[in-house]
Amino acid sequence: MAILPILQYPDERLHKVAKKVDQINETIRKLVRDMAETMYSAPGIGLAATQVDQHIQLIVIDVSEMHDDLKVFINPVLVHSQGEKENEEGCLSVPGIYENVTRAERITVRALDEHGEPFTLEAEGLLAVCIQHEMDHLQGRVFVEHLSHLKQTRIRAKLKKQRRETF
Ligand code: K1U
Ligand code: ZN
Q1: Topology of the domain comprising 12-166
Q2: pLDDT score for 27
Q3: How many CA atoms lie within 13 A of 14 on its CB side?
Q4: Mutate to test the pocket of ligand 1, among 61, 91, 101, 144 (most ligand atoms within 8 A of CB)
Q5: Taking residues 103-123, what's their average pLDDT?
Q6: Rounded Cα gap, residues 114 and 36, in angstroms
Q7: 44 CA distance to ligand 2 centroid (A)?
Q8: Which pLDDT value is given to residue 165?
């Protein structure tokens, strides 16, 4: 397994739209394992292939405390959403920034697992937030782009300052 480098906002590659996976094979399953290891070591609760510069519709998520409930979503489709709720979000591509975003409260998503088996999942709470956040990544959208232009400008300035101080 390997820990993959995570693209950092405002890297333009985070805005690429991911393509459908047409063949679920050993190469995809290795990427799933590497993305899971990358997510757990970050640490994070989700990761989209876009964030590791792989522009295919693949997401890993584990919101469990014990890191024992890995969920893999290939070619996910949102088939139903209900209600609205504001939640605080973070992103491994935007380190140190936590902001409130309004999203659907309950969702139903259809996807394939790493063996190509279709499944349907109903989600609410943190899992629903995380699925929507990761599906945004596959569309080339980063969570800060839900915020006002003023907030986005301030966030970019803060990240620049953080990076100047780190390197
Ligand atoms: O970068 C990502 O897409 C992952 C992101 C997922 C996410 C978090 C919160 C709300 C929506 C989506 C993260 O995992 S950020 C890190 C984080 O939230 C966390 C890290 C360790 C323990 C618990 C949470
Ligand atoms: Zn993210």
Answers
A1: Peptide Deformylase (3.90.45)
A2: 98
A3: 21
A4: 91
A5: 98
A6: 12
A7: 9
A8: 86
